[in-house]
């Protein structure tokens, strides 16, 4: 049964694309192939989690330029470079820009599969972080303060006393926070701790 996680490859060599598609099918992956970076960018939603295997040396848009485009777009896609003409500076630069792995052709199937699994895992975490950040950014400054107190485990009364507002006001803020952040329990709420704004720093003792 094919792996349903998104897996793409961009290479201007059609023979390489066909052979990689066949090889990865043996490992259960449904590889989508593209013969240019432009074709890839026009047809793929780069805001979703995925793994991209890309050749470094391509005409028009190179693998490095495609990587930079995805970085600039804050795409969560995990990138694996696969090139026939790689060198150390190229690999170092790719890793500095966030590449998950760098291989020279030909690559062994098992090694590539391990890299794919790692890239998909990293991409999934990155996608979740981006989604959390986007939800968090919808909070007002006051909701930000209430969230900090919620995560600290304060009761409604304690929050009302700390912020000098009524219990009803706290209840309204809590309801809005839960709706905006799309959370159902304290564990989900705690995921937003890394995003707490400096503006929300208040005494929670």
Automatic annotation (TrEMBL):
The modification 4-aspartylphosphate is found at residue 55. Residues 132-197 form the HTH luxR-type domain. CDD domains: LuxR_C_like, REC_FixJ. GO terms for molecular function: DNA binding. Keywords: DNA-binding, Phosphoprotein, Transcription, Transcription regulation. Residues 6-120 form the Response regulatory domain. It comes from the Bacteria. PANTHER family: DNA-BINDING TRANSCRIPTIONAL ACTIVATOR DEVR_DOSR. This is DNA-binding response regulator.
């Amino acid at each position: 049964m094919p792996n349903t996680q998104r897996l793409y490859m961009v290479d201007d060599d059609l023979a390489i694309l066909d052979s990689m598609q066949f090889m990865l099918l043996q490992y259960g992956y449904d590889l989508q192939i593209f013969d240019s970076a432009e074709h890839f960018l026009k047809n793929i939603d780069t805001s979703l989690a995925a793994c991209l295997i890309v050749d470094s040396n391509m005409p028009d848009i190179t693998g490095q330029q495609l990587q930079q485009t995805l970085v600039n777009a804050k795409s969560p896609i995990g990138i694996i470079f696969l090139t026939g003409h790689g060198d150390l500076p190229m690999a170092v630069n790719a890793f500095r820009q966030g590449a998950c792995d760098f291989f020279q052709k030909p690559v062994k199937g098992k090694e590539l599969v391990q890299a794919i699994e790692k890239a998909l895992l990293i991409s999934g975490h990155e996608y979740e972080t981006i989604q959390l950040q986007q939800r968090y950014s919808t909070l007002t400054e006051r909701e930000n303060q209430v969230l900090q107190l919620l995560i600290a485990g304060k009761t409604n009364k304690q929050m009302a006393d700390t912020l000098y507002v009524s219990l009803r006001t706290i209840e309204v803020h809590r309801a809005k926070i839960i709706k905006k952040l799309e959370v159902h329990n304290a564990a989900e709420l705690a995921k937003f701790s890394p995003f707490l704004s400096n503006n929300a720093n208040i005494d929670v003792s």
